[in-house]
Amino acid sequence: MKPTLFILAAGMGSRYGGLKQLDGVGPCGETIMDYSVFDAVRAGFGKVVFVIARHFEQDFREKVLSKYEGHVPVEVVFQSVDALPEGFTPPADRVKPWGTGHAVLMGRSVIDEPFAVINADDFYGRGGFEALACFLSSADGRGQYCMVGYRVGNTLSESGSVSRGVCCTDEDGYLTSVTERTDIRRQEGRGIIFRDENDEYHTLDENTPVSMNMWGFTPDYFELAGAMFRDFLASRGGELKSEFYIPTVVNEAIQSGAARVKVLDTSASWFGVTYAADRDGVVAKIRALVDAGEYPERLWQ
Q1: For residue range 169-181, what is the model confidence (pLDDT) as tens digits?
Q2: 3-state DSSP assignment of residue 6
Q3: Which positions ≥6 away from 13 have C-beta within 8 Å?
Q4: How far apart are CA 53 and CA 16, in angstroms?
Q5: For a designed S-S bond to 167, which of 37, 50, 209, 247 qualifies (C-beta 3.0 to 4.6 A apart)?
Q6: Which range marks the domain in which residue 125 is found?
């Protein structure tokens, strides 16, 4: 069975000021997300599921989903603040949904096979999808999780510092921990540096694996995450801004022995629009990939 690609797009409307302003960075107006779907299809994914906010469903179907018709089966699920397990209700003043871990749970009704999770607005590159597809296509049991570990040197912004989840692995390449590091940047004479919780700076090797929210899961993830989300709501559901994140589920799965998480190495370069000044660089990088024959001039004909 081919794996499914699950794309986190529920925050798209607010980030872009409405779907009419979805940013075209490809030569023919393609979005970053278009390249992710293209890479996933040619890597061997058999279906794409988008989680979105219901209020922009019509725009999303007309402006985004229509272009994929005839190329790959697509499903849409919805994230909302009141999409909660039976017995729970959101605080009256809560506006935003409950984070990435909650968003993934919205796919439970339409996904029965191994699946990957990515952000809608990150450019991951062909290699990341090929690594995921290869791993997930052979995952035939429970608790076979993975993440694509991008080399930190391939994920930096030229416009400023970034935050990254720095990964530690055991001798067999399985994830043991992810630590959020801030103010990661290049410094002349030192290489890549980051600031720790004591405001002290340390160096990072160029090839240190970091998480860019590109995960692979077997379907038992929904069972584990669902139970954890109920516990989260019981303890923190009354908070107006509490969020339930994918790494929270992953760390618990590792600690409890419910899953092992293989870190898949890739030499692909991640990029995105972390700063407004990054946009021109993204356009230029995609143009260079098209010129090199990595992608056709027009993705969806």
Answers
A1: 999 999 998 888 8
A2: strand
A3: 19, 53, 55, 56
A4: 13
A5: 209
A6: 4-291
